[in-house]
């Protein structure tokens, strides 16, 4: 397979000789994200809350847009410390709406603040809090996609997780968004066969 070409597996060979899925093949920022972060296990509360928040902001936008704005998001939302964001009030909401470096969407900003409060509240009723709850929906059987067309966009587990999170007061947590979250933090493994990245769970053993 020549550089930049699509193989039968739906992978693209990069200039470094490594095969990646098309979404991670061309943009340097997405390539670095795929190589160093996507699909690797995230099990701490702050890390899961950040990813959940960014997935919500991504709705209707490209992930590359979110990655480019992530440093500004981290500054604006105090590195996604749930306790700090849960304490945000009307003045903080207006501050965020005037910040041109992030996504200025009132509904998503309010949802992030509301989700921080739900994350804090979850500690009292769910051992391990948000991270443990999300990881409890890891499937028994992993997808084994060979092409991008075989990668699902939702699953019974992501649908059940979305229902529970909504029941617990979370917003912007639909089943497709939750499946993307589960992929991003290693709960679900959808690496294509033949990609250079190893199975994240195998790599962590």
TrEMBL record:
Under which name does UniProt file this protein?
DNA-3-methyladenine glycosylase I
InterPro entries linked: Adenine_glyco, DNA-3mA_glycosylase, DNA_glycosylase
PANTHER family per the record? DNA-3-METHYLADENINE GLYCOSYLASE 1 (PTHR30037), DNA-3-METHYLADENINE GLYCOSYLASE I (PTHR30037:SF4)
Leader sequence residues? none
């Amino acid at each position: 397979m020549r550089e930049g070409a699509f193989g039968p597996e739906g992978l693209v060979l990069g200039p470094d000789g490594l095969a990646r899925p098309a979404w991670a093949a061309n943009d340097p920022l997405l390539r670095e994200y795929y190589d160093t972060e996507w699909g690797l296990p995230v099990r701490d509360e702050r890390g899961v809350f950040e990813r959940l928040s960014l997935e919500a902001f991504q709705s209707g936008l490209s992930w590359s847009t979110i990655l480019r704005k992530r440093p500004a998001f981290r500054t604006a939302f105090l590195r996604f410390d749930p306790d700090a964001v849960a304490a945000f009030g009307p003045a903080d909401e207006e501050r965020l709406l005037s910040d041109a470096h992030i996504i200025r969407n009132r509904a998503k900003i309010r949802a992030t603040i509301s989700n921080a409060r739900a994350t804090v509240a979850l500690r009292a009723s769910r051992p391990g809090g948000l991270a443990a709850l999300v990881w409890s929906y890891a499937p028994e059987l992993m997808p084994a996609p060979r092409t991008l067309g075989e990668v699902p966009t939702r699953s019974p587990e992501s649908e059940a997780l979305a229902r529970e999170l909504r029941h617990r007061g979370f917003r912007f947590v639909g089943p497709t968004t939750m499946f993307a979250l589960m992929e991003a933090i290693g709960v679900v493994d959808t690496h294509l066969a033949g990609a250079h990245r190893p199975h994240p769970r195998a790599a962590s053993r």
